[in-house]
Amino acid sequence: MDTYLLMQIINGLSSGMIYALIAIGFTLIFGVLNVVNFAHGEMYTIGAFAGIVCISTLSWPIALVILVALAVGGFSGIILEKIAFKPFRRFQDEASLKSRAMRESTLLSSLAVSIIIKELLQHFFGAEMQSIPAQYLMNDPIPIGPISLSSGQFLILGSSIVMLAGLQYVLYHTRIGLSIRAISNNPLGAKYVGLSVDRTIIATFAVGSMLGGAAGIMVGLYSGAIFPAMGFAPSLKAFVAMVMGGLSSIPGAVICALILGVCEALATNFMTQGWSDMVAYSFLILTLIFFPQGIFGARRERV
To answer: Which residues cross the membrane (predicted)?
Structure first.
């Protein structure tokens, strides 16, 4: 295989892993609430800013910085659920859970919270890019045969695989994971058999936001800068991956995120970097036309 092509595929896998971590948050929340959380991209940004605060003020090691981003992201997700989603869950009957008005209200509420968070970050940190100190940058070249990868790519790929494996363990080998899967499948049935719906929803927001927060600081360490609007583009592409995967399929979201990342990287061979964003939007349009339930989605509802 051509060396440049192999490098582009690896770059695409790195980007795809970031999209996958964000898309999982979208998918988990949609699974338990049947609504889209448009403030999820801000959890990614908050994690990045929490990390740079630890770096600039406390000079903590990278491993501890990532753990702080995980914790802050999870806490922010819990606060987000309390502010933007819980007020619209006062009624738990089947008609209310399936109400279009409830879904539209929560969508607008999460969008409003997203704008508020972005404005607050700009107020306290400024709208300009915040640079990562040079000693924390993950750009050291690591030669592997004919190609040379950066330490940041290893960080993103390795940490993402560990977090995805941890998520699978939580979902299939813990009580809270069982509750998440049960409520995603049948919220009323789960409630009638004694599962705590509110507690499970809070845990879902925490888990999804933790992954988003970790993704934010890892991208910051790799790219060298963060800014208040940095979550918009990755969250939009993660949303496309979620739609392609079928809205509630975690494996589908991960696979489609990786496909999207690799296709974007390869597209730079034929068009400029800015135009490569068209790949995600093209995939979204094609999915809505030819796979209205998503490529890996069940036939419970059209996208």
So the answer is: 12-36, 48-80, 154-172, 201-227, 239-267, 279-298
